[in-house]
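<instruction>
Derive structure tokens from the sequence

<record> Sequence and structure tokens follow
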Amino acid sequence: MTGQTYMAAQAIGGGKLALATLPMREPGAGEVRIRIEACGICHTDVLTVDGGYPGIAYPRVPGHEVVGRIDALGAGVQQWRVGQRVGIGFLGGSCGHCEFCRRGDLINCRNQVLSGIHYDGGYAEVMIAKDRGLVSIPDDMSAVDAAPLLCAGVTTFNALRKSPALAGELVVIHGLGGLGHLAVQFARYMGFRTVVVARGADKAELAMKLGAHAYIDSEAENAAKALRKMGGASVVVATVSSTAAMAPLIGGLKPHGQLAVVGAGLEPLKVNVGDLIFGERSIVGVNTGSPIEIEDTLGFSQLQNIRAMTEEFPLEQVAEAYARMHGNKARFRVVLTMGG
């Protein structure tokens, strides 16, 4: 990076990433320029890299788990200052004037811009971001620790915090990957009786280490039946992408229980309607979080020493890092770090 240019990894179509040197620009009205310290690689980035988002224009810099420091302010930016530590998540900035914004529902803003999709994201040394999407990052939290909390963290945190479960009740975390290993920690420290359901006996040790009270191997026994023996779950947070795997767990919910879908699967979710009607159970989707909810996630994580398990790669190795995430080989979140 020089005073006039910076390095970035651009998605160029066909699932490919290419390093490029881009010209530095000044932030416009309502924008800030961020010198990036770290950026997490999230599975949602396939929408950019693999062309999954309709009408995406290439080249485009992916990345929406961004941590850095402001080095320039655009006109009209008042709340933030140069040198301040900030982050940007997937929701890059609400409009502030649509019906949902006016009702305080910033997540569902009709004109929401998405980081790394509608504008260049954080696989870079520098990023221009809207001030409406900024998140304050604690000075004593490392960039690598903070980055995954801006998407994976807030998504699982919100799924639990907004669920009908009360402290002491049984909560299930379905899956123990990039989302699930954070959800287990949140559930335990929120005071829930935490049960992990995953495939294979080999994951039991990690589940218990992260704070689970019990582990169910879905390959060895009927998970829904096992949950009913425990009294039924108040909520199942489904962090896996397989809709066929999460659907049977509805039968393990107690009356008025909730299946909170966090993992983004491509197949339709097929459910037994009787499991919904008899017991008045429900299914909800959880879509990340607003900037203030991300700050809540960071604060809770700092209070309880909750951290993602991460693998670090320099920006120059972005293709290898992305392939590791895409191939489901990472344990558990991949984070790009920028030189200096």
